[in-house]
């Protein structure tokens, strides 16, 4: 909520199969037959082909909010209130919370990865998710996001410690775009060259994130999707528009 509002793309990831803990909460009757979507805020819509999973903060509280009479969104209350101000919900301006879920409970839920080459992925825990940014849900593209790659690597090393099934973290990074300096998997290349130690290695990760973003945006070429062969700079608004047109994304500012 700074001076310059940031324009995100919110990605709608439909719930295919809730985790066992959410099933045990018996929230189905509160949802009244609505389709439910986890909503992830991203600045890189052109990378959505490479989603391998989705992240929630395990100790963050999420709500399930009515969008209208047939859809509901899973996100933080804070972001639902912003969405209400931005005209996302019907009736206009109202925040109607149907259920509350902890991030820890949502882990293990199977969702549809909008525009993903792998069509269905799982929700995993990410301890560095900020409650105060975006929707509190982060879709994971480890090919191009150093944070996502660092957390996925950590979860794979210590699946039992993080209480996840190894198969939930089984999808490898998927090449989405190539950059002249880092090749087809920019984030894993930077993770290695900057010697990132863990998802909490914030100094190295901040540098990796900065380089990955600039390399991808200014020098990247799409390897997959409808805009394959085009520059990332050209493809980015086009992929975003296609996702919005398909009803799988919407604009969100904060
Ligand atoms: B980005 P900025 Cl491929 N907590 O999406 C932590 N991180 C969050 C978040 C939260 N509450 N909400 C969103 N994010 C992540 C894709 C991506 C992203 C790629 C590469 C870089 C990248 C796939 N994850 O972000 O602080 C989301 O991850 C690096 C800039 O508002 C979102 O875009 O600049 C980005 O951080 C927004 O970060």
Write up this protein.
By secondary structure, this protein is an alpha+beta fold. It has a single domain, classed as Valyl/Leucyl/Isoleucyl-tRNA synthetase, editing domain (Isoleucyl-tRNA Synthetase, domain 2). It is 29% helix and 24% strand. The protein is built from eight helices and twelve strands. The protein has helices at 20-24, 28-31, 77-85, 103-106, 146-157, 186-193, 202-219, 232-245, and strands at 7-17, 35-42, 53-56, 61-66, 71-75, 97-102, 110-112, 120-125, 137-140, 177-178, 221-222, 249-253. The model has no long low-confidence stretch (mean pLDDT 97). The structure holds ligand A2H. The site of ligand A2H has 20 residues, from strand 2, strand 9 and helix 7.
Give short descriptive properties of this protein:
254 residues; alpha+beta; Isoleucyl-tRNA Synthetase, domain 2; ten-stranded mixed sheet; two-stranded antiparallel ribbon; 29% helix; binds ligand A2H
Describe the secondary structure blueprint for this structure:
Blueprint: E1 7-17, H1 20-24, H2 28-31, E2 35-42, E3 53-56, E4 61-66, E5 71-75, H3 77-85, E6 97-102, H4 103-106, E7 110-112, E8 120-125, E9 137-140, H5 146-157, E10 177-178, H6 186-193, H7 202-219, E11 221-222, H8 232-245, E12 249-253
Parallel strand pairs: 2-5, 3-8
Antiparallel strand pairs: 1-2, 1-7, 1-12, 3-9, 4-5, 4-6, 7-8, 10-11
Organism: Pterulicium gracile
Protein name: leucine--tRNA ligase
Family: Belongs to the class-I aminoacyl-tRNA synthetase family.
